[in-house]
Amino acid sequence: MKKRRLGRGVAIVGAGMTKFGMFKDRDSKDLFAEAFAEMIASVDKGVDPADIDALYLGNFSNDYFTRQSHWGPIIAEIIGHSPKPATRTEGACASSALAFREGVFAIASGFYDLVLVGGVEDMSKRTTEEVAEGLALATVPYEGRVGFTFPGVFGAVATAYFAKYGANREHLMNVTIKSHNNAPLNPKAQFPLTIRDMMQAKMESLKKRGQPLPAWKDEKDFLRDPAANPAVAWPIHLFDCCPISDGASCILLAAEDIARNFTDDPIHVAGIGQGSGRGFHASADMTYFEATRYAAQEAYGMSGLSPGDIQFAEVHDCFSIAELLHIEDLGFFQPGEGYKAVAEGATRLDGPKPINTSGGLKCKGHPVGATGTSQLHEVWTQLRGKAGQRRVPIKDLRIGGAHNLGGTGGTCTFTILERR
Amino acid sequence: MTARPFNDIAYNQFLNEEKLMGCRCRKCGERYVPPRPLCVKCFSPDLEWVQMKGAGRLVAFTCIAIAPPFMVAQGFNRKRPYISGVVELDEGGRVDARIEGVDPLKPESIRIGMPMKAAFIHRENVEVPETYLSFEPV
Quick check: is A171 catalytic? Predict the structure, then answer.
């Protein structure tokens, strides 16, 4: 692959995001405005929003979820950015990673100096079945037509992975338990609860209703109980799935040569990659995402870094099985070894390769258009040493990655951030 | 039959006629199923239809309990799941299909690698009748 480089360097100088959750009384405008206000407050030396040259906004399908399209100018207007340009990017669940990428290129080209990128999604006003249908719009046509939902797509991936490598449901549970252990340490998380917290809550609710109490021995026992953890798309169960969420996130990008006007601690874009996937019918093997491997190769090539250099990462764990594929596709573990590494604790917050310190999509939430820049928000927070109790306990934390996936692996990105 | 464009509309029309059709590049011989309008090996648009035998093996599946509205309309729900899967055809190439003839409530009994044969599910009594490709164990 050709080694690519930016025309000029780009750095993150501020970021903000809402807490993710199901907010019946909130909409995309006030969510994004909150993330934007937090971003302004995060800029160490201050920023005048009037100096922002352009907005790139990731949004997957508010068209379907809220029956309103054309969100670029709507969001631009609400944050006082009009009449400056606003461009919407759509790459299913990777929509705002694409916004980030376009913002980086716009600055690298020399055209703009200061660009706002972000994403928003408002999903909770629909029924679960409607959300399943809305998300399935991002499968490839043959998949949706024969009834594949998103959990279904990843259920099928899981059966292929299990058959090839000998993993089973218990290995998916390890991913879930690990993410839930990180979540209570993240104030932005939709479910800031460990699995044990949730067992306790379920127990109390059964007690209150006078129902017989289950004798769960441990977290896995709870996760094996179909009454507590029903199948959604076997072998994917409820606790393998990210929730339905509303939320917004944004990042302020600046040309490296002016970044220190805004902060003494800018976080640099070291590598940026994107790939396209083909759908099941055109894949020879369903146990990896070709688009992730391509994106990773592009990002590693540009940065001169290798998988071993990435000290921690956020990866797109829309379903537990997905996390296993990503940590292999990004080169952190050999194909077929990811599930063993997770079982050994390698991806825990205190492990050698912490994955999804935010709690991941599973616990932080997944307002699809907002996810990509929220992952980068987490990496930025960690690299600046501001992640509080969930701070990665590695000395000299310098390099982190964010992997975002859209559709059936149709759009995948990998971005490497570096503190210099 | 050769006059149909090499696209999803024609693919679905053929399914309605209970034929699983792909296409072959007349220039380099590469075969595609579902069909595509351009050979992506040699980039020739000179294609012809080929009928698949409809035999293959199961490479992945899932038993779906939370169904989208159009599947709910076909009688599926949390108590009555259905199966979607991927089948590798004997001729090579893979297709997405509904999987019938196995028990969605007993997923452990379904084996990756099972030999399968094509069937066709006709959905009638709706505004736009559709046929879904399906596979069942041999």
Answer: no
